[in-house]
Design goal:
mainly alpha; elongated; 10 helices
């Protein structure tokens, strides 16, 4: 799913073309808001047309479909979205509190400890993976000889992170995962290139 837009009938349905249609305009215009709003509004528009569509909604779609569930995003109903965009900035962000207006509404029904608790994202158990089932796979991709041969990353720096991660000194999983994704991608295309040359 690239984005979710609501039909006038009230249901929120995924439409792959919606984000792609809005993205060229957003990035091609020096002032997408045409002089309206504050820098924070421009940042929210960027999130709405890119990060929301291409990251968050994709993850919701993939994880729900993996469990044979049809997820909906009711806050993306066009009536709700249109109302939210019409609100002044101080009802969205006030005194360091984000989502100010909906939080004030929720306080009528829920305790403050729940309304104002920290965000919880889509974190994957990468640390457990790299210390468990994916340890050998990661160790092969991060082998010092391989890193030196490829010449993309500093072997000493990556090896130090991998060793310290293995010792439990610090959870370097995010740094290592980025390196691993590149290494896996590169290994795939090196193998493909070898097949073409060999054929």
């Amino acid at each position: 799913m690239s984005t979710a837009t609501a039909s006038r009938a009230g249901a929120t349905r995924p439409r792959r073309c919606a984000a792609r249609a809005s993205r060229p305009r957003f990035y091609s215009e020096p002032d997408p808001l045409q002089g309206q709003g504050a820098p924070a509004d421009a940042m929210m528009l960027a999130d709405f047309t890119t990060y929301l569509a291409d990251d968050l909604l994709c993850k919701v779609d993939r994880t729900s479909m993996a469990a044979s569930l049809e997820a909906r995003a009711p806050l993306l109903d066009w009536n709700v979205a249109e109302f939210a965009w019409s609100l002044p900035l101080d009802l969205k962000l006030r005194g360091g509190t984000t989502k100010y207006l909906p939080k004030q509404v929720l306080r009528r029904y829920l305790p403050d400890a729940m309304v104002f608790r920290g965000k919880r994202g889509f974190g994957a158990p990468v640390t457990q993976w790299l210390r468990g089932d994916l340890r050998d796979w990661a160790g092969d991709l991060l082998d010092p000889r391989r890193l030196r041969q490829d010449g993309v990353f500093e072997e000493a720096a990556v090896s130090s992170l991998w060793r310290r991660f293995g010792q439990g000194e610090r959870r370097w999983h995010t740094h290592l995962w980025n390196v691993l994704m590149f290494q896996a991608w590169q290994a795939h295309w090196q193998a493909q290139r070898a097949l073409v040359r060999g054929g």
